[in-house]
Fold these 2 entries.
Entry 1:
Amino acid sequence: MAKKSIIDNLIKYELNHLTDILNVLLELNLIDEAYLGESAAWCWYENEPSEAEKIMVLEKIGYDLSVLKPKK
């Protein structure tokens, strides 16, 4: 069975609900305002952003991802 990524599943959930993720992607300058809409958000995701970028977006939306970070 293939492993599922919690980060990718959260991103896909937000992409399907759009409200918060579009605002965050714009605020972080990860998409162009001229192309605002569902397709711009999905294009950002399909361009395979780094795990760090996806985490940054999710944390900006309000997710607490501290449980996913290794403990020191």
Note: The chain has four helices and no strands.
Entry 2:
Amino acid sequence: MSALTALALALALLSACASQSATGFPAIFDENPQITLPGGASTTPTPKVGPASLSVGIPSGSSEMLTAVSELYNGMTDGRLVKTDEPGSVGARISLDDLAKFTEGLNATLVDLPTGDALRTALLGMGASGTLPDIYLTDELPALSRAGYTTSLDGWASVESLLQEGKVLPVAFQSCIVDGKIQGLPYSASTPVLFYNATLIADAGIDASTLDAGLSLRNLVALFPALTKPTTHQYALYDALPLLSLLPSTRDVSAGWSGFVNGSFDFGSQAFTDSVTALRAVVKGQWTLDLLTKDQLTKYYSTSDPRILGKIAFWIDDSSRVSYWTGVAGLTTGIAPIPYLDERRLPLSLRCFAVNPKSTDLPDAVRFTGFLATDADALRLESRFGFDSGRIPLQLESSVWTDAIGQGTASLYFTSLRSLLPKSFVEGRIGVPGWSAAVAASLDAHALKLLQGLESIQTVSADMDAAARKALSETSSATPGLAP
């Protein structure tokens, strides 16, 4: 998967699920949330309480963390541990020795999964071979759901109560709906980040605090001339392409090619046109690497990444890569919000927990999934072992954020994101079957030529719309070849 594809997937607005009108979600921080689920009233009996043995697949997971959470679950399920009035106090403060007293009931065993692009392939392979864990973490529900490897969570009393509590980001729940059914529970999210070379910024006399506060694209671009030195092969921006998928949503929340409703795209929208126009000026200003040929890249940088060589002032990458970029020897890296056109918004890439429909203990699997993914005490306990690296929790309780974000290098940046949750939008691939193919067929195929001025929106927008619709249609009508 190209860097453009990986970042261009953070595209779909809340309108991506607008066709699912049977689902209503409360406003964030609503004191009296009311939610109507696709499955209607609960028709599933209350799950029994252990003993149960469940396998849980987590990329780079911790067996110690999973054991502690299952012990906390046992204690709370049988009533020996009780939540207090202080949010999350049990999960934050109880000693691990005390938790060890609660081993009777559910026993969770870790299945270590690969990270990145290999995760989807591994899960599909496990499903085909009958070795899929009872519960697993994924960032691509549609492929797994269409293959028959997820359990519909509609109608489960434990899931319904979680949603009605209104403590988890509503748009995250909505994005876990595939083909009108809840197929997973949201756990964490990453977001694109604007990284900067702090040394180059300081040498140019730029106050880093202005970057950390978040800049509009216009104000960011105003810094580029002082940071670009072609004679030394230093450039202000590594790549303008990832911004093309994000800027439309900051111009008009209901427009842009990412305003996907009922399978329809509009690459000819004013929001997309404005984004192309703004970024084309950046590329033609020769402030990025986008105009360099492969031979020039090799000549100037050999096989090394120019960012690591200290030749790039700004670049965009996923927040899950924060640890990497802040740990490169000889490189002092800062972290800032993604630039915007009119309104700062928060693009999210979700990870959610799904349940294997072939689990031999399905009621316990569903109930423990809800606890593992959304319970405030469980999340605070998980944070003591290190929360999902480079990602933010989707639980709205502030105390969960305090513990999950911690005191690391990027803690101040991540803390600032909580206020943007009401203005968040979620990538299409988590809840829209065929989204990756639609991106590849439309945006990936034309983005660079559009920014270089080799193609015009008027000439290619209709073809881009048609290619995206075709990719989604083909996925929608295809019969899953991996169904058990």
Note: Residues 1-48, 255-263, 479-484 have pLDDT under 50 and may be disordered.
